[in-house]
Amino acid sequence: MSILSRFIRLVRDMPAAEARRVAANRLGFVRLVAAACFLAVGARVLILAADVNAEAKFYTPTFEQVIRGNIQDRNGQMMATTLPAFELYANPREILDPYEAAAALSSVLTDMSEEQIFSRLTRKSSYSELAWRLSPKKYADVLRLGIAGIHGRRKLVRVYPNAEAAAHLLGGVDKDGKGIAGIEYSKNEDLAAGKDLTLSIDLNIQAILRQELSAQIDLFEAIGGAGIVQDIETGEIIAMVSLPDFDANHFRHASDNQRFNRAATGVYELGSTFKIFNTAIALESGQFQASDVIDVVSPLRVGRFSIRDYHPEKTPLNVAEVLIVSSNKGSARIADRLGAEMQKEYFEQMGFFKAAPLEIPEIGAPLIPSRWGRAEIMTMSYGHGISVTPVHLTSAVATTVGSGMVISPTLIKRTTPNDFDVQLFSPDTSAQIRAMMRRVVSHPRGTANFADIDGYAVAGKTGTSEKTSGNGYNKKANITSFVSVFPAHDPKYVVFAMIDEPKPQKHSFYYATAGWVAAPVGGRIIERIAPMLGVHPVDENSPEIRRSLMLELPELNKEEEAKHVSF
Is 272 marked active-site? Predict the structure, then answer.
């Protein structure tokens, strides 16, 4: 006889009262067992939740925090903002079938492969991150999959609507929303307090600068490039580009090369662009006039080194012509007469001895010689032996060809008049330098003919220099640059374009120097941005403009091959 049958018979033979008592006791026992099971399950859930919270607390921002301030461009276009999103994570201990779960999740989490997802779902942990900022739509798509062990929590994330635009300047934040690079880092205190920030950047100009530089990099198979547009009067950086760049929304995944800011961090020997400053110092010192004749024919040796010109001259040149045709020998002889102390004094006031006062942490410090002997001052006159950032160069050019006041660069929109109070060059010196730089572009023997844009009176200077390599120079790796101002008679903006390691091309007659590489892109940039900046075409033959750009110079030798001069 079975136990159940015995129990039924026993109950049947019992008095009714006794049967009810036994049934009640047994029911109470069942209730106790059920309650114990429920408590055990509840305790386990609490333990798992505690484990998840313990492992995930680093990634969990509090919603009581102040929403980080927005960053916008000078016209009010959004550059960085904070939006709600979701963090998605898994508890591998709760995943029933990791193979099936990984296959399902891969249809939504398209940034990861099925194998990567599977690896995260099988970690020996109760917390495994799947996505640290998921859009509400994608989060809803994940929930619809109904996978046990997949969890999410709402959070605030930093978003950069323009992706790569000004990524080096914006920088990025960590998972807790704290700035770790760029403006996000340097202005973290204000932004974290909810204060909005307006940059000097114009996103429209930024886009043009990036497009033109990128096209030229591709055309000459270069490894990178940089560009700057700067307001001469205020020092505001209107656009700054470094290529290659990265999507600011994925700062963590960018390579070191992508994060490197060639416009503000990289220091380079910028070659013959420094002849602008050497000539300005010469005129300002009173030791030279634009018409003074310089010997550029005789051999020039300093120590055991010879200084040569790209195109040797057959007759002497005056000071203005030295700049226009870019004579190394002429610049060196001028610097030699000026002396080290004067060169050091001017270079220091132009900011070449310290990092530029820009509002990002990624600023390169100039490399200057430890001794200023005769060889050093002569070679620095044409940009060799001294390395600065492009920001240093554009600010120094703004100082030299503008009002002569020392210009300080900024990435923050200036709403009050600047307080520049150091008059480094006289208005007369600045005007003469502008006139010479105009001829660098417009004269047949100038080195930047390909930047001559009708109506905008572009004035500029090219620079080609070999990149340093160990204790010497790499003759196969050039930095080509072109720094310009426009319009020459009333300069408003400095435009700088640099192409890093361009390769000789058939269409450039196998030249890869600044006159062929950097000058053309500088001209195209000016042609596109001038109307947007309110600079209108002018008639350069009008008496007023002719007077402002006139120099009484002898006629230069119009050698056709001089178009290939590209220092």
Answer: yes
Helices (H), 227-316: 256-259, 275-285
Calpha distance 363→382 (Å, rounded): 24
Higher-confidence residue of 55 and 255: namely 255
Distances in Å between the Cα of 211 and the Cα atoms of 55, 90, 218, 233, 242 are 45, 42, 11, 26, 11
- Report yes or no: 432 and 283 within 8 Å, Cβ to Cβ: yes
- Surface-to-core class of residue 540, CB atoms within 10 Å of its CB (0-12 exposed, 13-18 middle, 19+ buried): middle
**Catalytic residue chosen out of the listed positions 186, 272, 430, 484:** 272
Kindly state whether residues 190 and 275 are assigned to the same domain: no
Least confident of 337-346, 420-429, 548-557: 548-557
CA distances from 420 to 82, 307, 339, 424 (A): 36, 38, 28, 11
- 217 within some domain: no
Q: Where are the beta strands (DSSP E) in 112-202?
A: 128-134, 150-159, 172-173, 179-181, 197-198
158 lies in the same domain as 278: no
Q: How many domains does the chain have?
A: 2
Residue that finishes a domain, picked among 197, 229, 250: 197
The neighbour count for residue 200, using CB atoms within 10 Å, is 23
Which residues lie closer than 8 Å to 498 by C-beta, 6 or more apart? Answer: 225, 226, 227, 262, 268, 390, 479, 480, 481, 482, 518
Beta bridge partners of 13: none
pLDDT digits (tens, 9 = 90+) for 214-238: 999 999 999 999 999 999 999 999 9
- Given the DSSP bridges, would you call strands 472-486 and 305-307 parallel, antiparallel or unpaired? unpaired
Distance, CA of 341 to CA of 372 (rounded, Å): 9
By CB atoms closer than 10 A (0-12, 13-18, 19+), residue 463 is buried
pLDDT recorded at residue 36: 57
291 residue type, one letter = S
Q: CA 336 to CA 330: how far, in whole Å?
A: 10
In a domain, 151, yes or no: yes
Q: Give 494's strand partners.
A: 230, 485
157, 294: one domain: no
- As a whole number, mean pLDDT of residues 542-565 equals 61
pLDDT band at 564 (very low <50, low <70, confident <90, very high): very low
Parent domain of 156: 71-197
Give the CB-side neighbour count of residue 443, counting CA atoms within 13 A.
Answer: 30
User: For residue range 533-548, what is the model confidence (pLDDT) as tens digits?
Assistant: 999 999 988 888 888 8
